[in-house]
C-alpha cells in the first residue's frame, strides 16, 4: 500500500449517506445497492489460489487506476490493516464483516464522500456498492450502473447468455443486485405492530431483518428491507418492488403509528423521549447497547418535533461514532470496554448538550 | 430475563423475521447472540442447502445422490458434494457443468431460470473460453512454480490474445498486467 491511511481524520467525518437528508429521511436512513461481479478468467474466490487472489487484486487495481476520475479514490489494502481499522471500516459500512475477517489479498476502493465502495475478493471478486441518504433508489442506481459500465470497459466479467452475471452463490446470480433500504421504525415497535406489518410482507419476495451493529450490538429499532431474488427480474423491476411498493407501504404504517402515539399518548411519549435525552446527555458511562436504544428514541423525538435543538444528522452520526472502533480512532488509542463506556458518555455529552455548533462533531 | 440457552441474563432480544412460520423472538445473552448472528450471516448457504435438500428429496434416490456428489468440475475441481455443503460454487464454468442439477435449484430459489436485465455491452466470453482461460491461468501458475518461465510467458501471451479477441480495450494498464508474471517469479 502506497498511501498512509489516516483513519483518524476519516473518523471525524461521516459518510454522505448519514447526512439525514433526502426523500423520507425521517424514516429512511439510507438506500444501498450492491452488484456482485466476477472476472471471467479466474475461479470464484473459494477455489482461488493465493496467486489468483493477488493477481485479481493487482489486475483490478491497475485497471481502476487507469480509469478517469480515479484520482480521488482511496484504495485500501485490507490485509495490512489492524483489527481496529478493519472494524472501523465495517462500522462505516464500507466493507463487510466477511471481508474484514477473511484471509489473503483483499482490498476496498472508496470515494471521498463514501458514497460508493468497491470490495475486491469478498465472496465474489467484486462487490460494488453505492449508498445514498434517504430513499432514492433511482439516483443510487444511476450511479452504480455508470460505475459498473466503466469497470466493464476494462474488466471481462463472468457472464452467461441465459443465467446472466455469474456469482459464487446461486442466490445472487442473474442481476447480482441487492437493494437494501434501512428504515427507522420506532413507532411500529412501540405499538407492537411491527410483526404484523412484516408478516404481510413475506409473500412478496423481500427479506426484512432487524439490524445489528458490529460486535453484535443491538442497534435500536432499525430494520433493513432487501430484495430476495436476483434472477428473472430486471434491475428496474427489483428497484421498483423495494422502492415503490414495499418501502412506501412500511413508511405509511410507521407514519400512522407515530400519529397515533402523538394523539393518544403525547405525554408518555414526550416523557420517554426526554428521559432518553437526559440519560444520553448526563451519563458518566454508557454501553453501546444502551446508547443505541436511547438514540433511537431521541431520533424519533427530533422527527416528531418533541426535541428541537438537535439535528437528525447529528443523531445519525452519533450512531456510528459511538461504536467501539470509531471511539478508539477518535480518542487516538486502543481502549478497553470500560474505558470506552466512559469515553462514549463524554462524547455523547459533548455533542448533545448544545455547546457545540449544529452537526459539528470534531 | 434469562438467556434461552444458558443462565446468563438475556441482553439481546432478536426478532427473527425471515422464518417462513412467522416472526420468532429470541432472548439471548451476549455470547449466544454473537453465535446466533454469526450463523445469520451465512443465510445464503442455508437457503441453498435447504433448497437443495428439498429438491433432492423429491427427485433423487440415495444412489443417484451419491453419484451426483462425486461429480467434479473439470476446471476448478469442485465436487457437487462440496457445493452442496458450502452453498458456494467454484468457478463460472460450474453453471454449465452442473447445469442439469442447478436449474431446479435456481427455480427453487428465484422462481425463475432466465436472466432478464442488464447485459455487458461487449461480447461476453463463451462458457468454454472462460473455462479455457481459467485452465490456462492455472497452468501458468504451475509453470512459474516449476520455474519454467518460458512456458509461463507463452501462456501469458495466449491469455492476452484471448482477452483481446473478446475486445477488451487495450489500455495503459498493459504494463501492469504484463508485470504480473514477473512479480510472481
Ligand atoms: Zn446464553
Ligand atoms: Zn468449476
Give structural notes.
Chain B: Residues 130-165 form the UVR domain. Chain B: This is Protein-arginine kinase activator protein. Chain B: InterPro entries: UVR_dom, UVR_dom_sf, YacH. Chain B: Keywords: DNA damage, Kinase, SOS response, Transferase. The complex is a heterodimer of chains A (362) and B (185). Chain A has an eight-stranded antiparallel β-sheet. Chain A has a two-stranded antiparallel sheet with strand order 6-7. Chain A has helices spanning 7-12, 50-65, 83-91, 97-101, 137-152, 186-190, 194-201, 235-282, 288-303, 312-321, 324-331, 337-352, and strands at 28-37, 74-77, 107-110, 116-120, 126-133, 159-160, 164-165, 177-184, 206-212, 218-227. Chain A is an alpha+beta fold and 362 residues long. With 185 residues, chain B is mainly alpha-helical. Chain B is built from nine helices and two strands; from the N terminus they run ββααααααααα. The model of chain B is unreliable at 38-42 and 169-185 (pLDDT under 50). Chains A and B meet through helix 2, helix 5, strand 6, strand 7 and helix 7 of A and strand 1, helix 1, helix 2, helix 6 and helix 7 of B. One zinc ion (ZN) is lined by residues 3, 5-6, 8, 28-29, 31-32 of chain B.
Taken as a percent bin, the fraction of beta residues of chain A is 15-25%
Sequence stretches where pLDDT stays below 50 over 5 or more residues of chain B = 38-42, 169-185
Largest interface: A-B, 70 and 75 residues
Spans of chain A of at least 5 consecutive residues whose pLDDT stays below 50 are 213-218, 356-362
Number of helices of chain B: 9
**Distance between the terminal alpha carbons of chain A, to the nearest Å?**
28 Å
- Going across the biggest sheet of chain A, name each strand in turn: 2-3-4-5-1-8-10-9
Structural class of chain B: mainly alpha
Strand content of chain B: 5-15%
Shape label of chain B: elongated
Provide the helix percentage of chain A: 40-55%
Mean pLDDT of chain A: 86
Order of helices and strands of chain A: HEHEHHEEEHEEEHHEEHHHHH
Radius of gyration of chain A: 21 Å
Looking at how many chains there are and whether they match, the oligomeric state comes to heterodimer
User: Order of strands across the biggest sheet of chain B?
Assistant: 1-2
Pfam families (chain B): UVR
GO molecular function (chain B): kinase activity
InterPro entries (chain B): UVR_dom (IPR001943), UVR_dom_sf (IPR036876), YacH (IPR025542)
Region (Disordered) (chain B): 160-185
